[in-house]
Amino acid sequence: MSGGVTVVVPVWNRRDLLGRVLDGLRTQTCAAHAVLVVDDGSEDGSAELAESLGAQTIRMEAHGGFAKAVTRGIRESHTPLVAIVNNDVELAPDWVEKLSAALAPDVWFATGKVLQAGAPDRIDGTYDVLCRGGTAWRVGHGCRDGPAFREARQIWSAPMTAALFRSELFDRVGMPDERFESYLEDVDFGVRCALAGCTGQYVPAAVAWHQGSATMGRWHPETVRRISRNQVFLTAKHYSRRMLASYAWHILVAQGLWGLVALRHGCGQAWLKGKVEGIRRWRELRDAACERNRRPDSIFQGEETIRGVQRECGWDLYWILYFLLTTGEAK
């Protein structure tokens, strides 16, 4: 697809990572029209570094979270395409070119294969799927790269770790929900895309490498609190009363098992805090439109994707237990 691309890079500290992603953007085979660094209240000179490296820079007044920073960047963009790239991502030189070429007229967004920076034979993520219990899986996370991740396919949710979007999409489905702050805001956005009939493309030839949770850490208590809370936000926003009744056991199992994982990593209290906050803010997040929406069966086809990839690449204990407890079988 022709047309300019603005690359939005949200940043909250970790100045040491910023130079690498900006270097990668300067060497793209399909040059970006603009690189826009949104500094989300950094205290380590990240904004100054971005300016010294020639990037346009927006300084947020205070730290407001990933979703707020991304939204600000999208609003300041004036091109047909907007890419969102985390500051802890390194892009292959043809990343923008490969994703731009995938945006056929009926494709609204595209994402590629993201490998782990420290173990490049391992998948960090591809695209997101959601189970009936309201927990998401970044398909392939932790798996060895292989045939399951080498075929292009239609998707409904692109991780905002590194993805390309039509600017018009944000007019159709809205901006990332700032109430999520960070984590699962891209899954929420993907659900809204699916409900609007706006699908995307997974492009395995577009490769990036991700350090992952570089700012706070994968099992930092604040990370766990936000994920735990935002799992509740997802169910509040997108599950009708009928769905809540049908999937109550799935929700209890999926989110309870995730709590046990958090507990194993010493973050049980953070998980509980997140759940309490999510329940306390339930009415705030409750969207009356979900009662009118068609039942989003396309979303829950993600369970079949999870089963298929787990069978091929090896089962995680979490998904073994989830399917065993909700369907009576795991494999």
In short:
With about 325 residues, the protein is an alpha/beta fold. The protein contains 14 helices and twelve strands.
Topology:
Blueprint: E1 5-11, H1 15-26, E2 34-39, H2 46-52, E3 56-59, H3 66-75, E4 81-85, E5 89-91, H4 95-102, E6 109-116, E7 119-125, E8 128-130, E9 136-138, E10 153-155, E11 162-166, H5 167-173, H6 185-195, E12 200-210, H7 221-238, H8 241-246, H9 248-264, H10 268-280, H11 282-285, H12 297-300, H13 302-313, H14 317-327
Parallel strand pairs: 1-2, 1-4, 2-3, 6-12
Antiparallel strand pairs: 4-11, 5-12, 6-7, 6-11, 8-9, 10-12
Model description:
Helices cover 42% and strands 20% of the residues. It is built from 14 helices and twelve strands. Strands 1, 2, 3, 4, 5, 6, 7, 10, 11 and 12 form a ten-stranded mixed beta sheet that branches. Strands 8-9 form a two-stranded antiparallel sheet. β2, α2 and β3 form a beta-alpha-beta unit. It is globular, with a radius of gyration of 19 Å. 50% of the residues are buried.
Second rung of CATH, namely the architecture of the largest domain = Alpha-Beta Complex
For the secondary structure, the number of strands is: 12
Shape: globular
Provide the structure class: alpha/beta
Radius of gyration: 19 Å
CATH class of the largest domain: Alpha Beta
As for the CATH topology of the largest domain, it is: Spore Coat Polysaccharide Biosynthesis Protein SpsA, Chain A
Q: Tell me what portion of residues adopts beta-strand conformation.
A: 15-25%
Major beta sheet summary? 10 strands, mixed
Average pLDDT reading: 91
Q: Give helix and strand order, one letter per element, not per position.
A: EHEHEHEEHEEEEEEHHEHHHHHHHH
Distance between the termini: 41 Å
How helix-rich are the residues, as a percent range? Answer: 40-55%
- CATH-level-4 superfamily name of the largest domain: Spore Coat Polysaccharide Biosynthesis Protein SpsA, Chain A
Q: Could you say how many structural domains there are in total?
A: 2
Tally of helical runs: 14
Q: Unreliable runs, pLDDT <50, ≥5 residues?
A: none
